[in-house]
Specification:
Helices cover about 40% and strands about 15% of the residues. With about 300 residues, it is of the alpha/beta class. The chain folds into 2 domains: about 10-135 and about 285-309, 3-Layer(aba) Sandwich (Rossmann fold), CATH 3.40.50.1370; about 135-280, Rossmann fold (3-Layer(aba) Sandwich), CATH 3.40.50. Helix 4 links the parallel strand 3 (about 105-110) and strand 4 (about 125-130). It starts with 14 loop residues before the first helix and ends with a helix. Bound molecules: phosphoric acid mono(formamide)ester (CP).
Length: about 300
């Protein structure tokens, strides 16, 4: 049983709650493999997706998760909503609450926006990515992918490579993987390593090879060009050469190691196309797993709501 009406970040979830979401996703993934993807578990419930930033995977999988579970599903296009007339986040939330909805999946460029919204609405708020803070459902699907492949998370070595500083995926994975007993190594240009991240349990590697040596999984991160003011590395070409993951450095990982990436990928920058499309790549499996994990989250939050609200 989750302990909150909202899912705001892995910082706030216990290892038991994370385990419950991952166990639930085992069941929802079985359901997704069936011929008819339809159930009435969330019949009569309504999910709103409220995305202030672009998304393909997260928004689509929330929408499908709601539909497959039998919920009503509404997408608010921020570009054509009253947000453009200056409506505040809280006013938008309270307006949605008045429409008696149950879940809001939100993505927002400001860190903390989902938490602010959650305080003002009765609906369950699910963080679909907030600024450079957290992207909990992404990290949960990454962990699910690891657990499905390796049968465990405890003791795995996961190398997270690239733009750590601007990445909400990196932070959520660090919280979640540490809580479940994995070792997290990070490697990036010094300008892309947040100050004090080691205090959260990350090992900062001094070379690409040190990060990848003996790793079970290597996670490439997208260069977040939209969050940078420039000047963090000389050029994309040099970044790819010295910090990108290619076949030569991937050889340092364990023989059965897998490649992960939250997507969208800058092909040839953080990962070479050969790795993205190769046999070790689980990038598209991650997308499928994102649907299973988001279905599990909606089911667990619905249970919480039935018992507590
Ligand atoms: N991984 C991820 O958040 O992808 P989208 O931006 O497409 O949702």
């Amino acid at each position: 049983m989750l302990k909150s009406k909202d899912l705001l970040g892995l910082q706030y979830l216990s290892a038991e709650e994370i385990g419950e979401i991952l166990d639930g996703a085992v069941e929802t993934k079985k359901f997704l493999k069936g011929d008819r993807k339809s159930t009435d578990v969330l019949k009569g419930r309504t999910l709103v997706t409220l995305f202030y930033e672009n998304s393909t995977r997260t928004r689509t999988s929330f929408e499908l998760a709601g539909k497959y579970l039998g919920a009503n599903e509404v997408n608010i296009s921020v570009a054509t909503s009253s947000v453009q007339k200056g409506e505040t986040l809280i006013d938008t939330g309270e307006t949605l609450d008045s429409l008696k909805i149950d879940f809001i999946a939100i993505r927002h460029p400001m860190a903390g926006a989902p938490a602010l919204l959650a305080k003002h609405v009765r609906a369950s708020v699910i963080n679909g990515g907030d600024g450079m803070h957290e992207h909990p459902t992404q990290a949960l699907l990454d962990m699910f992918t690891l657990k499905e492949h390796f049968g465990k998370i405890r003791g795995l070595k996961v190398a997270i490579m690239g733009d750590i500083k601007h990445s909400r995926v990196a932070l959520s994975n660090l919280f979640g993987l540490r809580k479940l007993g994995a070792e997290v190594y990070m490697y990036a240009p010094g300008t892309m390593i947040p100050k004090d991240i080691e205090k959260l349990g990350a090992h900062i590697a001094r070379s690409r090879e040190e990060a990848i040596e003996g790793a079970d999984a290597v996670m490439g991160l997208r260069i977040q060009l939209e969050r940078m003011n420039g000047g963090l590395f000389p050029s994309l070409g040099e970044y790819a050469k010295y910090y990108g993951v290619n076949a030569d450095c991937f050889k340092y990982a364990k023989p059965d190691a897998i490649i992960l990436h939250p997507g969208p990928v800058n092909r040839g920058v953080e990962l070479t196309p050969a790795l993205i499309d190769g046999n070790s790549s689980y990038i598209l499996e991650q997308v499928t797993n994102g649907l299973a994990v988001r279905m599990s989250i909606l089911k667990l939050l619905a249970e919480y709501r039935e018992k507590n609200l």
